[in-house]
Amino acid sequence: MHTSPSRSDVVFAILAGITGVASSFAFTGYTRRFVVAPIDALVVRATPGAIVAWMIQNVGEEAHLLHVALSFAIAIGLLAGAALIGLLTARWLDRPIVGVGFAGVLAWGTTAALTTDPLVAVAAAVPVAAFSGIGIGSRTADRFDPSRRQVLVSGAGVLAFVGLSAVFGRLVSEPDPGYGTNVERSDAVEQLLRQADEYALDVASDDLPGLVSSIDEFYNVDIAEFDPRVPADDWSMTVTGTVENDVTVTFAELTDMPIEHRYVTLRCVGEDLNGRKMDTAVWTGTPIEPILDEADPDGACGCAMLRAEDGYFVQFPIDALEDAFLAWEMNGQPLPRSHGHPVRVLVPGHWGETNVKWLDEIELLDEEMDGYWEQRGWHGTGPVNTVAKLWDHVRLDDGRLEVAGHAYAGTRGIDRVEVSTDGGDTWADAELSQPLPGDDVWRQWRYVFEQEGKHEVVVRAIDGTGARQPEDRSKAFPSGATGWVSKTIAP
Ligand SMILES: Nc1nc2c(c(=O)[nH]1)N[C@H]1C(S)=C(S)[C@@H](COP(=O)(O)O)O[C@H]1N2
Ligand SMILES: [Mo]
User: Fold this and answer.
1) pLDDT digits (tens, 9 = 90+) for 312-364
2) Which ligand ends up closest to the CA of 221?
3) Alpha carbon of 478 to ligand 2 centroid (Å)
């Protein structure tokens, strides 16, 4: 009796793999318990930095779809492998039931090992076992000849199982921590949100964020496709390394410390010059300095590595960390999972990557070390570049044109925004929103002009130290985009 896989074995094995993944998805949704999630985390971790850097520069935003697709393929392949081994075992021993059982156990074990969730593993394993059973049944005559009825009945059975998975998965899943909780906002936060509304310019464009971005429109940058899920009660953070005292802080202890509400703008070093990965929220938290003082750092480099639940790590100077704060609320709501629930760091004026989400450790160092992005070629742990974005232009009722956007220079602040409508020959001051309190927050600008034919509109900001945004253009990689944003506007 031959035991090499036939074409129908392979077909059934692949169907088993796809259905296993589909059923586990139906059970968990697109969450960390989905069988593809841990595989994706492994793929991301295993991809060499040079490849990641190349992808960021040459593929850009869509690069993450490649590792997600690869992870789906691996998940399907693993479950298909389990089914195939079952099919071959059944034939080899001439015991169909042993083959089916073997396929199921292998699929269950693999999924359970990956997801550490025995129920998700059942959702993935049952269709795998079922398809190897169908495969074995259809081949007893040693040729691929299932009856039409057989195929329909088994197909319907598998679909029904995926449906059941979905229903049962909803029943046993816990809600995402921090999401859609809709807590009543404190008066302090309400007042800051109102102030942001009042200070915002009255722009005609309705495509422009206000001075505070809503939680849903706030940009998102994650190294992992599947965000960690950390209930506040399970959270704690340690301060370790070259310190006099190791310190551990729980969520209850943290939120018992003196509370502050701050407007803070974040901007990703990886965004295009006129990109949209720049947003502002009102954050609630507590200053980090007292916690550091308690630990009493004495390392030689004056630097610290911050580490997070998703395997992310970033190193920067203690000086910068001392002005930072630990936030657990965003716009008056518990930090959403995608923004680091339950606790993230906010470092004034530094690139987005220093603002560690799902923080769980601050390790004081003796020697400088590269962080996650620095290992991949970026230089994004320092202060942000100055930028004035030209995010929208709108024709007003009186026929004139309005151009508008946001400008940000970290802790240097924005002093002025200048606009040219003739490609940079002549410049005029834009109208600016009143500065919001705080030392790390953007401003809105707006400029209205009489359109005569085609215009090349250019904008540039002058920061609070009087320095003008440099004109020289560079790409985002490795230290943030530079240059003046310009847009050609034709009638
Ligand atoms: N743990 C963790 N923290 C992280 C990241 C991450 O992938 N994991 N991304 C960083 C980057 S590159 C940026 S720009 C900001 C984005 O924060 P946001 O997603 O809340 O906008 O978070 C930073 N903190
Ligand atoms: Mo970033």
Assistant:
1) 999 999 999 999 999 999 999 999 989 999 999 999 999 999 999 999 999 99
2) 1
3) 11
343 conformational bin, left if phi > 0, alpha if psi -120 to 50, beta if neither: beta
Token couple for 1: 């009796």
- Say whether pTM exceeds 0.85: no
Residue closest by Cα to atom 20 of ligand 1: 339
Residue 448 has pLDDT above 80, yes or no: yes
Q: CA–CA distance from 103 to each of 35, 109, 116 (Å)?
A: 17, 10, 19
Distance 385 CA to ligand 1 centre (A): 18
Relative to beta strand 414-420, strand 428-429 is antiparallel
Q: How many angstroms separate the alpha carbon of residue 17 from the centre of ligand 2? A: 35
For residues 295 and 239, is the Cβ–Cβ distance under 8 A? yes
Decide if 432 contacts 416 (C-beta within 8 A). Answer: yes
Distances (CA, A) of 335 to 194, 437, 443: 20, 22, 24
Asked if residue 12 lies in contact with residue 135, where contact means CB atoms within 8 angstroms, the answer is yes
Which helix (H) or strand (E) is 459 found in, with range? strand 455-463
Cα(114)–Cα(131) distance, integer angstroms: 21
Minimum CA distance residue for ligand 1 atom 5: 222
Strands 392-395, 260-267: pairing kind? unpaired
Residue 203 · residue 444 · CB < 8 Å: yes
Task: Give the distance (Å) from ligand 1 centre to CA of residue 218.
Answer: 12
Which one, of 301, 288, 299, lies nearest residue 247 by Cα?
Answer: 288
Q: Which domains does the chain have, with CATH numbers?
A: 7-172 (no CATH), 187-376 (3.90.420.10), 387-489 (2.60.40.650)
For residue 221 and ligand 1, the question of a CB distance below 6 A is answered with yes
Nearest ligand 1 atom to alpha carbon 267 = 14
Q: Which two tokens stand for residue 172?
A: 């046993």
Q: In which band, very low, low, confident or very high, does the pLDDT at 265 lie, cut at 50, 70 and 90?
A: very high
Q: How far is the CA of 480 from the centre of ligand 2 (A)?
A: 10
The CB of 355 under 6 Å from ligand 1? The reply is: yes
C-alpha dihedral (216, 218, 222, 227), degrees to nearest 10:
-30
Mutate to test the pocket of ligand 1, among 271, 335, 357 (most ligand atoms within 8 A of CB): 357
- C-beta 280 within 6 A of ligand 1: no
- Alpha-carbon separation of residue 67 from 24, 48, 224, 373 (angstroms): 19, 12, 10, 17
Q: Cα–Cα distance between 382 and 364 in angstroms, integer?
A: 18
